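Page 42, continued from yesterday. The earlier attempt failed because a stray header line got pasted into the input along with the sequence. Redoing it now with the clean sequence only.
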Amino acid sequence: MTTGQKTSLTIVALLVFVATTVFIIRHRDRQSASEQGASPPAPSAKQLQTEFPQAAWKFAGYAEPDAGYQTFMWAMSQGNVDTTLDSLTPAERAKWEGNMKKPKAEYGAQWAQRTKQTELFRILDKQSVSDTETHLRIESVGGSNENPVQEQWAKMIKVGSDWKYEGWVGN
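This time it went through. Structure tokens are written below.
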């Protein structure tokens, strides 16, 4: 073997040694951090908000599909008929209003009672169908529901610049 070949092999061996050492040190540091309870960087706010306990429901506006859905659920839980109807697409609103044969206040009380059974909802998945349609896979959890955990896809439609609820996918 020539001196040049020996030098090349020595350099390759040295590079392998350095790379292996760096890998071992990084692995050890990660393992040490996890044993000490250090957690990975927190996800962004958009990723973080996937669980919505009823006590935290609020008027979240309509800028995003999940905000529109939360606003819809909050309005129903408050018995707020006008905001509930405002949270619907025009087509869905027409259906709801067409079925309203009693005074609005009675529906508000009914909706509030029904949503009180939902302890929380989770957004398990979000699928953009188009620029104006997004489906949210919603898991609703409630102790007094007939089915304590229900999972359905909510259809959210963009009306102007607002995201509105248009019922469950497939209904």
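Notes: The first strand starts at residue 51 and ends at 53.
Reminder to self: strip header lines before submitting.
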